[in-house]
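ESCALATION

Customer reports they have been waiting on this structure for their group meeting. Please prioritize. Original submission:
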Amino acid sequence: MDFNYFSYLCFAWAAVGIITRVLMVTMGDRWNKWEMEKAYASHKPVWIYIIAVFGLLMIAITWYQVINLDVRYSWIMAVFVSLTTIKLSALLFKYDQFRQFASETLNNPEKMKKLNISVLMISVIFIALGVFVY
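Update from on-call: job pushed to the front of the queue and completed.
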């Protein structure tokens, strides 16, 4: 199996999704406290700007790879990566609303269950894309 940019991207994204879900489940309320007090503190942390720049660079690099590499179906991952602009723009431009959404989600077991299942399913899809498509 030959690895390329898109297979690495699939595996990295799946790893982040799985690892964060495991941490959320094992840490429970400690994760929620960390997320709301540190990661998404009441005053917008500097890391958000750094992640936004990184995210936009990642989108540009991914589309550049779509254009320059001859990898079938590479556009699928480019679309997924491009969808991260939704979260990036919420973090940058509607931070307080994003924080409220995060708090409501973290404190609602049903919403957390749906979120965790969705992220795990997407992670499995990324692994399958990395193994069978790219």
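Sent to customer with the following note: The chain has seven helices and no strands.
Escalation resolved.
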